[in-house]
Design brief:
Elements: H1 3-22, H2 26-37, H3 42-66, H4 72-93, E1 100-104, E2 107-110, H5 111-131, H6 146-163, H7 168-178, H8 183-206, H9 213-233, H10 239-263
Antiparallel strand pairs: 1-2
Helix pairs in contact: 1-2, 1-3, 1-9, 2-3, 3-8, 3-9, 4-6, 4-8, 5-10, 7-8
Subcellular location: Cell membrane; Membrane
Family: Belongs to the 4-toluene sulfonate uptake permease (TSUP) (TC 2.A.102) family.
Organism: Flavivirga aquimarina
């Protein structure tokens, strides 16, 4: 095993830790790790990310459930429209994106570059939501109508399908704001959605891609160890401080990805 592989597996452990601590963000680390450190094609990387994050989140859901931090009813309500959108986008949308998206003079924007830049833009938005201060004036929010949840699930599901993310970093704030769920329970509930979205999205990839199962399963196993540790550590670490620090980290990563894809 060379140094690159060792760093890759260390990254897998960190992916699990992040999922266990904040309920999202695993894919934000997994995709750049697979693309830039281990050299995978972005389409393959986003597929692997769905399996890794989905499987790890399933373990995390059980860990959070034992602590009473999962709202299954709300989680499944968000999951239904989302997994439809994720599956359809991975099965039909992503494979049919043209290899050449744009060309002007000497500059060309390929499918691989486009996926990574879109991924970075979503990272930027996620980082801002994590960094900004939450306003709480004591107002109790009412749960919204289900048709709005359905539409939001379709939109987030399509986005996460394209970028190969579970969507936890999008669902946690959605559950807090729209479903009026406390932050800690929103983290646990988001893991249900991430699990369902990711694994169903990956089923769409299995039908169109060749999978390196030995590598994928070993990488996933290490991520599962990480998420078990992360859930155990979450009670000792301030959620607000962790969220803001992680937001700054993914902001830096997003800027790096945009720079790398624009100049290389």
């Amino acid at each position: 095993m060379d140094s690159t592989q060792i760093l890759g597996y260390l990254g897998a452990l960190i992916v699990g830790l992040v999922l266990g601590l904040v309920g999202g963000g695993g894919s934000i680390l997994t995709v750049p790790l697979l693309v830039y450190l281990l050299g995978y094609n972005p389409v393959i990387a986003t597929a692997y990310s769905l399996f890794v994050v989905g499987t790890s989140s399933m373990v995390g859901t059980y860990q959070k459930y034992k602590k009473g931090l999962v709202d299954f009813k709300t989680g499944l309500a968000f999951s239904f429209p989302s997994f439809i959108a994720v599956y359809l986008s991975r099965r039909y949308l992503v494979p049919n994106i043209p290899d050449l998206l744009f060309s002007f003079n000497d500059y060309t924007l390929t499918k691989e570059m486009g996926i990574m830049i879109f991924f970075a833009i979503i990272m930027l938005l996620a980082s801002f939501s994590m960094i900004k201060k939450e306003k709480n004036n004591g107002t109790v929010l009412k749960s919204q109508a289900y048709y709005k949840t359905f539409i939001q699930g379709l939109i987030i599901g399509t986005i996460t399908g394209v970028i190969g993310a579970g969507g936890g970093f999008l669902y946690v704030p959605a559950l807090v704001v729209w479903a009026n769920i406390p932050m800690k329970k929103a983290v646990g509930t988001s893991l249900i959605i991430v699990t369902i979205n990711s694994l169903i999205g990956f089923i769409g990839d299995v039908q169109t891609l060749e999978i390196e199962w030995v590598f994928l399963l070993s990488f996933t196993l290490i991520s599962i160890i990480g998420i078990i540790l992360g859930v155990s550590m979450s009670k000792f670490i301030s959620g607000k401080k962790l969220k803001k620090s992680f937001g700054v980290f993914i902001l830096i990563m997003a800027i790096y990805i945009i720079y790398r894809e624009s100049v290389m």
